[in-house]
Here is the input.
Amino acid sequence: MEDLAMAAAIGTLFGMGVFQMLRRDLVKAAMGFALLFNAVNLFILSTGAYRGASAPYTTNLADGKATSDPLVQALILTAIVVSFGSYALLLAMVNLVSRRFNRIDSDEVKELIN
Here is the structure.
């Protein structure tokens, strides 16, 4: 039941992120990227979830207890840092476009094509 709820939450976040990315408003599209980044991070985290008997940072393997995979947690931390950097760059580009063209609607900025 918990897995189904997690899958539904990830799917909902992913769907909302894609929907917002397809909007014409550049700020809403940037928010869609943030939702999409969070959905991908939750998906990666859920793939490494394991109901082990001990935490992944314990080193006592003599007991024979199964642990969660610590590699996935390290990858999530890296993905969060990369997503924050990408989001900061995206917001800087949206800010640059809005200051240069005085609008945030992507259809009204015809100079972006040329």
